[in-house]
Amino acid sequence: MAKYGLIGKGIGFSFSKTFFTSKFEQENRQDTYENFDVDCIDILEEILKENSNLKGLNVTIPFKESVIPLLDRVDKEAKKIGAVNTIKIARDGKLVGYNTDHYGFAKALSDLLPIKEKTALILGTGGASKAVAFVLEAMGFNFRFVSRTKTEDNLSYAQLNRDIILKHFLIINCTPLGTFPNIYEYPNIPYQFLGDDHVLFDLIYNPRETEFLKMGYGKGAKVTNGFKMLEYQAKKAWSIWKS
Fold first, then answer.
1. What is the second-level CATH architecture of the domain 3-99?
2. For residues 118 and 41, what is the distance between their CA atoms, to the nearest angstrom?
3. What is residue 61's predicted lDDT score, i.e. its pLDDT?
C-alpha cells in the first residue's frame, strides 16, 4: 500500500486530499493520501523517515521554492520556472522535483482563448506566479508582475491605473488573498476600469467564487477560478508518480 501526500502550511481546506482519496476509492486502490501541515519545510526529512511507504508529494504555499534545495534532482521545466509543486520519491529514495502547475494553468487557460490581446498582469510573485509566467511566455503574451512593492521588474498595486488596466486583458490572481477562511479579502486593483474584454483568472478554488471574481464579473469580465487548473495538475502529478 503506497502513501501520497501534500506538504504545505494551513492546508486543511486542500483540494488534493479530497481529489486523490476519491480517485483511490473509485479505482479500488488501497493507497492513501495525507496532509502534512507544517510550519517549516526542513521537517520534510522527518516526514520521509516516519512514512517509509511514501511515494509522492504535492507541495503548496509557501514551500514551492524553498523545497528545491532539499531535492536530489529537479526536472528541467521546474528548474526553469524556479518552483516545484510535485515530488516523486524514486525507488532509490532520491527526491525528484517537478512542476505541474504550468501544465494545469496552460490547459485551463486554453479553454478561455481567444483573448482580445495577449497582454496580462500577474498578481503576486510567489511560486505559482512563476509557473503562470512560464506559460504566458510560451504562448506569446506580454505580461507584467504586480506586487505590493515596486521593483525594477514589478509594478506595484499603487501604480495600477486606467491606462494599465485597459492595456492588459488577462489578469491572474496568484496571491492567497480571498482563500478560505479569509473570503472577503481581494487584490487591490482598480476594478472600475474592467470591461467585457477582460478575463480574470483566480488560482484560488476555495471559495469557488472569490471577491476578485465577483467584482470582475460585475464589470462584465469573463471569470474563472482555479478548480480546473488543479484538476489538470493533479492528474499530471499522478502520471509522474506512476511513471
1. 3-Layer(aba) Sandwich (3.40)
2. 36
3. 87
> Which of these, 215, 222, 153, lies nearest to 190 by C-alpha position?
215
CATH 3.40.50.720 fits 102-228, yes or no: yes
The catalytic position among 3, 17, 64, 150 is 64
Confidence class for position 64, pLDDT limits 50, 70, 90: very high
| Secondary structure, 3-state, the chain | CCEEEEEECCCCCCHHHHHHHHHHHHCCCCCEEEEEECCCHHHHHHHHHHCCCEEEEEECCCCCCCCHHHCCEECHHHHHHCCCCEEEECCCCCEEEECCHHHHHHHHHHCCCCCCCCEEEEECCCHHHHHHHHHHHHCCCEEEEEECCCCCCEEEHHHCCHHHHHHCCEEEECCCCCCCCCCCCCCCCCHHHCCCCCEEEECCCCCCCCHHHHHHHHCCCEEECCHHHHHHHHHHHHHHHHC
Helix axes 227-242, 101-110, angle to 10 degrees: 130
64 tagged catalytic: yes
Grid cell of 15 as nine digits: 483540494
Residue type, position 210, single letter: T
Domain ranges (residues) in the chain: 3-99, 102-228
pTM of the model: 0.90
Residue 1: pLDDT band (50, 70, 90) is: confident
